[in-house]
Specification:
Immunoglobulin-like, 4-stranded antiparallel sheet, single chain
Length: 128
């Protein structure tokens, strides 16, 4: 009987895209993670979010299991910013191997809830 090749977990978050329209208090970030485990292995993944340094932004931290992080501008007349980190954990079956990658962005809005930047600050993902 041939030895089974171990799974090789891999993940990449890619770029974050904005969810929401200029002028709306309801904003957010969306990601489309890519995951793989190699031939003969089945991937599953989870997403965890962390928001830090919020200025004029309401958020829900630890919003796991989803590829969307809701953000709400509190006072539309003021600028707003928040640092958002998404962490993807991919696990492979049948051998239970796992890998993690995370990316952090700084998101900023001008007065009127007009998005002016989604800047990637750092990433531990291999494709970044």
């Amino acid at each position: 009987m041939a030895a089974r090749t171990p799974c090789t977990p891999w993940c990449d978050l890619g770029a974050a895209s904005r969810a929401g329209e200029d002028g709306s208090a309801q904003q957010g970030l969306r990601i489309s993670p890519r995951v793989t485990c190699g031939d003969g292995c089945q991937p599953a993944f989870t997403v965890a979010w962390l928001c830090l340094g919020a200025d004029n932004v309401d958020w829900r931290s630890g919003f796991g299991g989803n590829t969307y992080q809701p953000l709400r501008i509190i006072d539309l007349a003021r600028p707003a910013k928040v640092q958002v980190t998404a962490t993807v954990t991919v696990s492979c079956s049948p051998d239970q191997s796992a890998a993690q990658c995370s990316t952090t962005w700084l998101v900023g809005w001008e007065p009127g809830a007009v998005l002016h930047s989604v800047t990637q600050l750092d990433s531990t993902c291999p494709g970044a």
